[in-house]
Amino acid sequence: MGLVPVYHEFRRLPHIQRKQVKMPRGYALGLQVLREVILMVAAYYAYSITKNLVHPSPIAEAFRNASSVVTLERALGIFQENNLQRWLLEEERGVVLFFNWVYTLGFFPVMAITAVVFFVKDRDTYYKVRSIMLVSFVLGVIIFAIFPLAPPRFMGDLGFVDTIQALGPGQYTSGSELISYNRYAAMPSMHFAWAFLLSMAWASTPYIWAKIAAVVYQTLMAGAVVITGNHYFLDVIVAVPVIMAAYYIYQLKLAPSRHMPYKGTPSPRT
């Protein structure tokens, strides 16, 4: 699934209608920004404490699941991640380094830029993207808890390499040591899932350059998560239905205008 079948529907998602409360403009904006920051921090905290809810010691389970994923991919004929990575490391190390940077700079920095741009320019789209992202995050956390999965970079016996650890950027590897995150949360790939979501947002704008950039961005991220050894092909595939499920949950259950009373012209009494 790509952007073309869905971004037109994304544009038709109901806009969030909010009560206008009179208060100083700067104060109101500050409260809105603070609320968004609190939401993100709370979501990350929930993510950090749910790692061991289902499996008290998920590491062994994560490696068993990794073996199952590899077996399934072999049965499907798509287990080529290690061969692709090995070939690039031997023949085109510059390409690997490029995708390392895509993986690092294409995640939080792109999310931050997108959030700022849409928060300032199109607040309705910002709230839609933020809400769908949070719903997908909840779905992802549930999957991570139930199905911990060791990423390919931990499967050295299959020939995988942690390319970011091997080639850099060094500031990413040193910074990741300061952050508590679930190392066994490979499926779905939230890197790709959110790249897919952000791409839908940019593709829904009227600008041709944004539509092209959206397609390029999600394609590069799909390659980056695999080439760096962080995800299997199946992790990328599963990310798409996770985002689409979050999209439809928002559309059907969470969009405020769907719960507002009908304000059209009443039908004449008979």
Structure overview:
The chain is mainly α and 270 residues long. The protein has one domain (25-256). Helices cover 67% and strands 0% of the residues. The protein contains 12 helices and no strands. Helix 6 (108-121) runs antiparallel to helix 7 (123-146), helix 10 packs antiparallel against helix 11 (208-227) and helix 10 (190-203) crosses helix 12.
Give structural attributes.
0% strand; mainly alpha; globular; 270 residues; disordered C terminus; 67% helix
Shape: globular
Query: Cα distance, first to last residue?
Result: 49 Å
Which class of secondary structure composition applies to the elements?
A: mainly alpha
Averaging pLDDT over every residue, what do you get? 83
The helix content is 55-70%
For the largest beta-sheet, the strand count, sense and barrel status come to: none
Number of strands: 0
Order of helices and strands: HHHHHHHHHHHH
**Number of helical elements:** 12
Over the alpha carbons, how many angstroms does the gyration radius reach? Answer: 21 Å
What count of domains describes the coordinates?
A: 1
- Beta content: under 5%
Low-pLDDT stretches: 259-270
Give me the secondary-structure topology.
Elements: H1 4-11, H2 25-49, H3 58-76, H4 81-91, H5 93-105, H6 108-121, H7 123-146, H8 163-167, H9 170-176, H10 190-203, H11 208-227, H12 233-254
Quick structural gist:
The chain is mainly alpha-helical and 270 residues long. The chain has helices spanning 4-11, 25-49, 58-76, 81-91, 93-105, 108-121, 123-146, 163-167, 170-176, 190-203, 208-227, 233-254. The chain starts with a helix and ends in a 16-residue tail after the last helix.
